[in-house]
Amino acid sequence: MSGLLSGLSPSIHVWDAMTKQTLSILRCSHAKGVGYVNFSATGKLLLSVGVEPEHTITVWRWQEGTKVTCKGGHAERIFVVEFRPDSDTQFVSVGIKHIKFWTLVGGSLVYKKGVIGSVEDGRMQTMLSVAFGASNLTFTGAINGDVYVWREHFLVRVVAKAHSGPVFTMYTTLRDGLIVTGGKERPRVVETPGGLLGVSTLSSRTKEGGAVKLWDQEMKRCRAFQLESGQLVENVRSVCRGKGKILVGTKDGEIIEVGEKNAASNTMINGHTQGGIWGLATHPFKDVFISASDDGTVRIWDLADKKLLNKVSLGHPAKCTSYSPNGEMVSIGMENGEFIVLLVNALTVWGKKRDRSVAIQDLRFSPDNRFLAVGSVESAVDFYDLSLGPSLNRIGYCKDIPGSVIQIDFSADGKHIQVSTSTYTRQVHEVPSGRMVTEQSVFERITWATWTR
């Protein structure tokens, strides 16, 4: 296993995946960082490609810590360099409008550019992925969803629209020659009985159906897998295959194991993806919690089993979340000023409202589940009476709050809220009128729902 670093002094670290011990550290000449690494068939050699303008390709004897040779790869970015699975001397590089077939000859690298020729629908594309077949076949996945089939360095065929979006990843072994592809796709079920692997398949004419596909050796027939991880997986970035299973890495940070024969999915790792996790709340009496993130999803997790129970995409970055005291509802505050109330059992929308144009920072249900208080960057707290139904008409609000709202807490009787702000002030207001309370004698009599001393 290898790792790579970027920065002023990039290096490649090779370590044992089982013992986690470092086996070798390669100090690179890749000035701005390392973009990709790959082992040769025997594992004795290692390829690396830099992200500097020349996109230099370097061959290493990693066990000795020595560089065999290097050569400028391409003027534009190189995404992948892969040794043929039966070779320590031949590899392929692909990238922006680029495919080259390389050979290590002694201490030098020589290459041949891919030749398109007169193949129908053939034109040089940006290539994102590589796989290999018998008889010196190479398959490259293109940004438009096509797969190009090469013999030596000549294009022989184009598999049009293998995926409806970019083909980000491909994997094959010479053991049986079957090819796995992964890409971006909105699945559409069009099945035909029988076929490859003896199960329902997609015909060669209609290849839509899943972000992961298993193809025959010539990429003429395939089976599409529709993967579920709380919702349909539409964007796959990495695939691997072995022992009757396909391992899938998704854009959303999930790792899913799928059976080739029964198509059963097992989500092994999942979590939020882009941006931070801003909202976190525990269920009032169950060992579960909910998280909300910039990736626009909210997710319910099991504390004991440490696994995802449910998730839903809300379409916008989420900034905060809160359970109702009875555990039946959860509210989510959004970056765009909207807030959404979901029914917990199915994570379906009960109601939503947008009375502010800036981010919601905190929201809280009253102890009797009747009121919802929503605080925003707009220096305001709005009140909603949930007993009036999902229309969520505002019934009152707090004003004269110095700074954006950071936290809210209801009193135990639901008649007051306290607000902490970005200016390090604390205010108490009546519910639902929003009138600010200034009498010290009133403060002293209030018991807060979640605040302890």
TrEMBL record:
InterPro entries: Beta-prop_EML-like_2nd, Beta-prop_EML_1st, WD40/YVTN_repeat-like_dom_sf, WD40_repeat_dom_sf, WD40_rpt, WD_repeat_EMAP. WD repeats lie at residues 277-311. It comes from the Eukaryota. GO terms for cellular component: microtubule. SUPFAM superfamilies: Peptidase/esterase 'gauge' domain, WD40 repeat-like. It holds the Pfam family Beta-prop_EML_2. Residues 277-452 form the EML-like second beta-propeller domain. Keywords: Repeat, WD repeat. GO terms for molecular function: microtubule binding. Residues 9-257 form the EML-like first beta-propeller domain. This is Echinoderm microtubule-associated protein-like 6. It comes from Liparis tanakae (Tanaka's snailfish). The lineage of its organism: Eukaryota, Metazoa, Chordata, Craniata, Vertebrata. The gene is Eml6_0.
